[in-house]
Design a protein that fits this description.
166 residues; mainly alpha
Length: 166
């Protein structure tokens, strides 16, 4: 289909023109007043010709510009993390901290309500059992799900290339 300036403009066409105008304004090609005026006209445009007129005196922009070929990427260096016990990780400290905080709040509410039936144990007991079971089942020699093992356990692309070296 040949280009026709009388073709009706869609909302997507108006949005694309507004994005281009914003880029030209950010690059300093349009003053704030010119940008505002053209942006208003872009959203009032009826045809593709109206939108083209707003961009006619501006150079073309590639909104999806790829990085410059002169940029070089350094290969990733293997990061060695200090060996830590699974039990000393920040995740476990956070889990136990939440457990203690919630149960202290429940204990205070129970005490303020007159030391009646110890309902707070229905919160502390099951939650504590699940948390303690998880804590004890993850020993220092085991890896939890989602952790990368040594470099030999990583997947490789066809041809033996390591995906992290891309």
């Amino acid at each position: 289909m040949a280009y026709d300036p009388q073709l009706r403009a869609s909302d997507e066409d108006r949005d694309r023109t507004a994005t281009l105008l914003r880029e030209h304004h950010a690059l300093g090609r349009l003053t704030a007043a010119e940008f505002s005026e053209r942006l208003d006209k872009a959203f009032e445009a009826k045809t593709m010709g109206d939108l083209d007129a707003l961009l006619r005196d501006l150079p073309g922009l590639d909104l999806y510009r790829l990085p410059d070929a002169k940029l070089t990427r350094q290969p990733r260096q293997a990061q060695v993390q200090p060996a830590r016990s699974r039990h000393g990780s920040a995740g476990w400290r956070a889990a136990w901290g939440c457990y203690i905080t919630v149960n202290m709040i429940c204990l205070v509410v129970w005490a303020l309500s007159g030391f009646g039936y110890p309902w707070f144990l229905w919160v502390a007991g099951p939650w504590g059992a699940v948390l303690a079971g998880s804590y004890l089942s993850v020993g220092p020699g085991r890896q939890s799900r989602g952790q990368l093992g040594s470099g030999s356990a990583r997947r490789q692309l066809p041809g033996g290339q390591d995906p992290l070296d891309r």
